[in-house]
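URGENT: need a sanity check before tomorrow's submission.

F., can you look over the S-adenosyl-L-methionine-dependent methyltransferase record below? I want to be sure the sequence and structure line up before it goes out.
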Amino acid sequence: MFETLAASSGPSSAENIAEITVIDYTLTQRLLRFYQSFRWIKQVCENYNTVLNPGFAALPQYLKSKNYRNPMSVLDSAWQAGFNTNEYPFEVGQDMTDDTVLFVDIGSGLGSQSLLVKERFPHLKGWIIIQDQRHVIDAWGALSKPGVEAQIYDFFTPQPVKGARAYYMRNIIHDHQDSQAQEILENITSTFDQNSLMLIDDIVMPDSGGVPWHVTMADFNMMTGLAAKERTEKEWLALLESSGLKLIKIWKHAAETGDSIIVAKPKKLA
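Structure tokens as predicted:
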């Protein structure tokens, strides 16, 4: 069951796991709930699960490949096998230079989030780029900071910055129906390299159970003003899938509103 989850390019359904492992479907559901309760796996939405740590998932096969010898090298461990890399865990993300583009803030407004990143992590090397329409960028001059560059950009056109570490959008995707959202995500992620991540800062509604009134009000605002919508976890997963992206993690940073950071990357680079 763990091998099936680890081999998948994204979350796997209980039905698919039961079929591949030839385990009774009801038993599969019960086992998945048990594993999830110990945080060995994560349920990303109803009946869909994924591994939490590819290193742990790779451990049995890794130990077998080493004839069950005790691991002795930090450069040759289950972590490297699980993440398909030769890097040392603490070196990932530490090879940036002053010329690296660290953070691209798309639809940034006046860059409030980017300025917070710069303030919170002043030691980080690399550039931050804010992108928005011309009239917004024209107002940026008085707020400009060292290490932060402003660009005019329309996210319905190809993304000009290639190979940045993080591409960030806050409260952008919920303004658009799925076909437009897919176009935006494909324009941005077409420039990714192996180290790039998509960070979507938006509301994630629960698939079931009660939804706070202010979250449903936000959904009605989207429907009324833009013919758009807030999305459930299942709907976000479907949007990422249709855009060729793999979900890495959802970080809920405001549980009462559902505001979350959705971390994803292209399947071909995952």
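My own read: Residues 213-226 form the longest helix (14 residues). Confidence is low (pLDDT under 50) at residues 88-92. If you see anything odd, call me.
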